[in-house]
Specification:
The chain has 102 residues and is α+β, with helices and mostly antiparallel strands. It is 16% helix and 33% strand. The chain has a single domain, classed as NE0471 N-terminal domain-like. The chain binds zinc ion (ZN).
């Protein structure tokens, strides 16, 4: 059973997504990192897990245009580059928070 966020906040000025987990842990994920790690099939090879999207092509003024909860296990993030097919599960978000480069 993975941790679930009790609150998700998009800080547009800082381009950071803040997640407050049930355990009390707070994760802060930069937009461009999240976008580059988009788990959808056009950004990442479903079978090998290999990244297809080149992180260098992610726009600098990236913003979140919308967030849609998917059941109670994920959130779909709509970016201002027109991409909104990435479903970020809680598990994915936790992994990204842990793997995040300092
Ligand atoms: Zn994607």
């Amino acid at each position: 059973m993975s941790d679930t966020p009790t609150n998700i906040r998009a800080h547009q000025g800082e381009q950071t997504l803040e997640l407050i987990w049930d355990s009390g842990v707070v994760s802060r994920l930069p937009y461009r990192y999240l976008r580059a790690e988009c788990p959808c099939a056009s950004c990442r090879n479903e079978w090998t897990g290999e990244r297809i999207l080149d992180p260098e092509t992610v726009r600098a003024d990236l913003m979140i245009e919308g967030m849609e909860p998917i059941g109670n296990y994920a959130v779909r993030i709509g970016w201002n580059d027109g991409h909104s097919s990435g479903l970020y599960t809680w598990e994915t978000l936790q992994r990204l928070a842990q793997d995040r480069p300092a």
